[in-house]
Amino acid sequence: MCDLIHYRVEDGLALIGLNRAPVNALDQSLRAALINACERAAADITVGAIILYGAQGLFSAGADIKEFGTEACFAEPSLPGTLTRLSEIHKPLVAALGTLALGGGLELALACGYRIGEPGARMGLSEINLGLLPGAGGTQRLPRLIGAESALNLILSGEQIDAERARMLGILDRIATSAEQLLDEARAYAHELIDCGAPARPAEAWPNPAEDLPDDFLARYRVEHEPRWKSRLAPRLVLSALEAACLLPMEEGLVRELTLFKQAEASRQSRALRHVFFAEREARRIPQIEAAVALRKINKIAVIGAGTLGCGIAMNFADVGIPVALMDLDGRTLNRGLERVRENYQLSVKRGKLSAVQVQQRMELLFGTLDYADLSDADLVIEAVCEKMEIKQQVFLSLEKFCKPGVILATNTSSLDIDALAATVSRPQDVIGLHFFTPANVMRLVEIVRCQATAPDVVATAMDIAGRIGKLPVISGNGAGSIGNRMLEPYAREAHRLVLEGATPAQVDAVLTGLDLNMGVFSMLDLAGIDVSFLMREANRAAIAHDQSYCCLAEELYALGRYGQKSGRGFYLYEGRSRTEDKEIVTLAEQLARELNVTRRCIEDLEIHDRCLFTMINEGIRLLDEGIALRASDIDLVWINGYGFPAHLGGPMHYAEQLGLDTVLNRILHYRHVQGEYGEMWFRPAALLERLVAAGKCRIEKI
Fold first, then answer.
1. φ, ψ (nearest 5 deg) of residue 44
2. pLDDT tens digit string along 356-408?
3. Residue 454 pLDDT more than 70?
4. Cα 603 to the chain's mean position, in Å?
């Protein structure tokens, strides 16, 4: 057989090992080799049963994502056709699932009559994360195996489940004693099937997948969940495929599933999510730093600042078994911080995500201290104190005095000049920015800010440790606001200005949430705290040389003590988390507009969309041109994972590409013209955007 398949016959069993490194992606070449091997085994009269397994242990992580959207996706033999043929073989097929069986890999296992998994195996149908649905029988075979409701929940969640849960659901027939024993026990299982004359496929556990469900179950499911799906297409297509599984024979259901899959694959949403998938992998590549660079050992962490942010950062490390010293100069703040950590963990216990024993283990990894001397053995120190340069510089001077040579000194600043902070110490090569997002124990993004003097091994180690704690690291150059907050400034600026010109906060937010952003500008500012954004502006007024009168409304709210949700009043009125509009905001905006000679008028939703998003996109393109961002796709990841930009739009840069870069440029120029002096100041197209359009480029890239 070819190198993609290991084939051998032993004692009446055909052992077919998938051997396409690294994850047995089911591309056209592997599909062809697999079907040939299975046909050979089916025709061999000495073979009583067939075992499919991963030659290197891992079964299959699914289809080759690079094939989606190309002719190769359905090149013969297609995956749906291959699995249909395997399901028709007249001999028992046993799938031995090692490590992973995801997406098309699990669909391959479902096409087999019998399944055994190693104890640590994980499996799931994760296509929903790419804006797709299972297209090789998953939506038809799984409901007939575990019932419609369980199948629907598993497919829509895209979650990976462990072997024990898979056995309880009915996906696995058996769990092997260990990973090492998987193939031997699969052999024994196959011999049992031969000895008892088992059919090639057992009778369906759920021939009627909707049995015991109300007649209107799927309709009610749609009504209940559609608000959460917003404009996402894939969940609706999954529901349609499950409906087909409940109403149609298998053969017709497979045809219906394939039609729905092709609709999803051709959609903009799936293209956007596939863009995000590859962007995450590309983000881990660091230009000019060799992959083999030696990493610094990180065995103990110190976090300075026991506020909400510092506590969340500390939890990330305790969660993966790394000891953490949490330091604060104020004893009461430190005690409140440690108690806050325990309360967060207790919430996880109530939700069934942690046990009391696990909480205790994690709390034992946290050590509270008031003394810098206790940080002398830390390998990485992260300061998370207030956003004032002089305070952060004092912290770094203390770290210089007490920390050992080679320790990585990280700042969590979201707005300050890290090169200036690094100049405080005699070891600027050890200084780096690690910008966590609040709540830091939940938010996935970490902006890794590389300074002029930062050593390559410090950058590589920061990327590695971020991955160890389950974060998505994105490299940024040093500059006010890094990537995310630098783009947030024009985005929020236009929102503020639009309210001065006649829009309401609710109207602006509705346009943005109508695009499926998690929240609008003003609800976001209220949640983060109007006082927080005010202090960030104060820290950066020297860096922003332009007129800032556009944010006078926020300045007035700060002066009035209206800090947002925390104070019950901000751009909205709050009772708990319940938000209502405040007519006083309109009155205040009218008053400020008169003082600034801003003409008020009716604002259309399209103008809100264009001014908020296109100025933000324009700033992102500037970041790329300046080298602050390495790739346009990195910018997309920052805004998806840090600011709630919908992943199914691909992030702001991908969204701009879909709309057309010429459209973005023309609309910016339009507002530059119609907005008069304000437009001349703020609607200046990025030079790179102008070059891209002039060159007829469709992608945002450096030229």
1. -80, 115
2. 999 999 999 999 999 999 999 999 999 999 888 999 999 999 999 999 999 99
3. yes
4. 34
Burial profile 619-656: b = 16 or more Cβ within 10 angstroms, e = fewer: bbbbbbbeebbbbbbbbbbbbbbbbbbbbbbbbbbbbb
Rounded Cα–Cα distance for residues 141 and 409 (Å): 53
Token couple for 559: 């002066």
**DSSP β-bridge partners for residue 94:** 51, 114
- CATH number of the domain located at residue range(s) 485-627+660-694 in this protein: 1.10.1040.50
Arithmetic mean of pLDDT over the chain: 95
Rounded CA gap, 409 and 497, in Å? 39
What gap in Å lies between CA 445 and CA 143, rounded to an integer? Answer: 36
Helices 79-88 and 104-111: angle between axes, nearest 10 degrees: 20
N-term to C-term CA, the chain: 47
Determine the average pLDDT of the residues in 321-349: 95
Enter the tokens of residue 602: 């009716």
DSSP string, 396-424: HHHHHHHSPTT-EEEE--SSS-HHHHHTT
Q: Could you give the CA distance from residue 222 to residue 237 in angstroms, rounded to a whole number?
A: 11
In Å, the largest CA–CA distance within the chain is: 92
- CATH code for the structural domain at 301-479: 3.40.50.720
Mean pLDDT, rounded, for 413-423:
91
Tell me the pLDDT tens digit for each residue of 456-482. Answer: 999 999 999 999 999 999 999 998 889
* Per-residue model confidence (pLDDT) at position 545: 47
Alpha-carbon distance 411 to 427, whole Å? 14
DSSP assignments along 18-64, one per residue: E--TTT----HHHHHHHHHHHHHHHH-TT--EEEEEETTS--B--S-
Q: Report pTM.
A: 0.94
Q: What ranges do the domains of the chain cover? A: 5-265, 301-479, 485-627+660-694
Instruction: Please list the active-site residues.
Output: 107, 127
pLDDT, greater one: 609 or 353: 609
Which residue, among 130, 107, 122, has the nearest Cα to 57 in the 3D structure?
Answer: 122
The b-or-e profile of 300-309 (16+ CB within 10 A means b, else e) is bbbbbbbbbb
Residue 333 has pLDDT above 70, yes or no: yes
Helices assigned H by DSSP within 248-287: 250-265, 268-283
Q: Which residues 6+ apart lie within 8 Å of 209 measured at CB? A: 143, 144, 147, 148, 151, 242, 245, 246
Cα gap 338→346, rounded to integer Å: 12
Q: How far is CA 108 from CA 121, 237, 379, in A?
A: 15, 21, 45
User: Looking at residue 288, what is its pLDDT?
Assistant: 80
580-587 LR contacts (CB < 8 Å, sep 24+): 581/504, 581/505, 581/506, 585/499, 585/504, 585/505, 585/553, 586/504
DSSP letter, residue 137: S
Hey, do 301-479 and 485-627+660-694 end up sharing a CATH topology, with the first three levels equal? no
Q: What's domain 5-265's superfamily in CATH?
A: 2-enoyl-CoA Hydratase; Chain A, domain 1 (3.90.226.10)
What residue type is 135 in one-letter code? Answer: G
One-letter amino acid identity for 35?
Answer: I
Residue 318 — φ and ψ, nearest 5°? -60, -35
